[in-house]
Specification:
By secondary structure, this protein is an alpha+beta fold. It contains twelve helices and ten strands.
Amino acid sequence: MRYRTHAGINRYCSLKRRAGRYLFVSFQASTAPIKVHRISLIESTAAVEALHPFQCNDDDLTEIWLASERTLKLCMEDIFTDCPLYEQTLWIGDARNQALYAAQVYGNYSISERSLELGAQSLERFPIVGCQVPSTWDCLLPAWSFLWGIHIWEHYFTTGDHTFLERIWPAVIKNIEGAFRYVDESGLFSGQFWNLLEWAPMDQEHATVCHNNLLLLAALKSAISCAEVLGKTQQQKELEKRHHSLRVTILQMWDDEKGSYPDARLENGLPSPSMSQHNSALALIAGAVPDARIERIRKNLLSPPAEMVQIHSPFAAQFLFEALLQLDEKEAIINSIRKHYQPMIAAGATTVWETYPNSTCSPPGFPTRSHCHAWSCGPLQFMNLILLGIEQTAPGGTAFRISPWLSDLKHASGGQTTPLGAVQVEWKIQKQQLFVKITAPDAVQINFCANASHSPYTLQLEIVRSNSC
């Protein structure tokens, strides 16, 4: 930004939004002394505040949570934006992750609702939900369209807002119908779109890619849940038929010798030789892993073979962590957070990055693409979910399962907001006793569950009731 001064007192406020960590000011061609009265920045974000930040005796984990929360806030306006600097755009797939985090940390549901509605409006010009909205782009990114469908169910489950679900339902069906226009004779979703999932070197430059079909399967699963809540019996039956057919077809893509799904089906009909961790995670999430394949999937996620493409970004780690949680691999999630986020903190970062430090996806000479990217705020969700053990089990926040995983910590505290008020957990180990205090609204059912990490200790449990919001 350049400003040309005039004689006397100058006042100027830039109307263009900018973001950065440092501000450099230089004066050029001055012919007289200059006195600077004030230089300031006006921060503009959504009006949100984390009322129950996570804390524990591991300073790095605490800093990772705080940096993630700072990042999320900087990427929230009247919509979710991907980052506050070089795009400032509502990317529909990013918004799915951000909505999960904002609901838990801030109890903010309106931005999630608005982002979903803007996605629905894009169906006026696209067969499936647009990848960034509103936009003049004509580009479609199917993974984002299907994440929008998954986001719909998650928004309802979090809020219990039946009215919104009823209003958005026609768009859910329209998105599914649009997707099935591109299901080919083999039964797979296929099209010359921007078939990206993340920046990792997956073989995703083909019409038929595995991750699109797995996400479509998950979107169908979400739509079935929505239809059941709304009592849309006939539509539910049709969705279940499509879900079953697509699942059977996807299962046939499995390469038993390699123990994985291929990245894509090539134009000659053969499977791609490339295999990626991503498809193992998404297959588990979408319900495309028979029991006989569970242990091979577990191996792919925990100790992938050298030739398997591994996850490169915290965005894709969301799927990895969701899958590991299904496998009850809690410690692996915490270890991964430490491994990939601690270097950001060590580098002096106060926000979390778009890609993992020094990923091959980063520009030459830079440790990451974007230094403040809210699709990377997964620690907000998974540290609360695992280390505090706060798991919502009923729509609208009416019931929770509490089961803190102690890991190697001595104490931890924090909370999650709900439509009925905050659910807070505080625990500490003293000698051979584990003290757990849960504070929750009267209207919220609490079910405390012991787990293996509690076994060395004698439990002292206290549940305190507070007034609902």
